[in-house]
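[step 3/7] inverse_fold.run input=structure_tokens len=61
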């Protein structure tokens, strides 16, 4: 329920100031881009780890 009320407040603020809306959108886009970059880095690390594990398994056998 808190989220709903917060959303309503955000909508009111947007109606009052469009500049606020633009700033929020910009922040959201920046956050999304940051998340994508972090996820890519994590994926790269995960892939490297799996490769290392596979190499270890091969060397063990």
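[step 3/7] decode complete -> sequence:
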């Amino acid at each position: 329920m808190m989220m709903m009320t917060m959303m309503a407040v955000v909508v009111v603020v947007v109606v009052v100031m469009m500049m606020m809306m633009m700033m929020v959108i910009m922040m959201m886009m920046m956050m999304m881009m940051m998340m994508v970059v972090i996820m890519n880095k994590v994926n790269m690390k995960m892939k490297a780890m799996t490769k290392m594990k596979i190499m270890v398994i091969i060397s063990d056998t």
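[step 4/7] annotate
The chain has a mean pLDDT of 82.
The first helix runs from residue 2 to 16.
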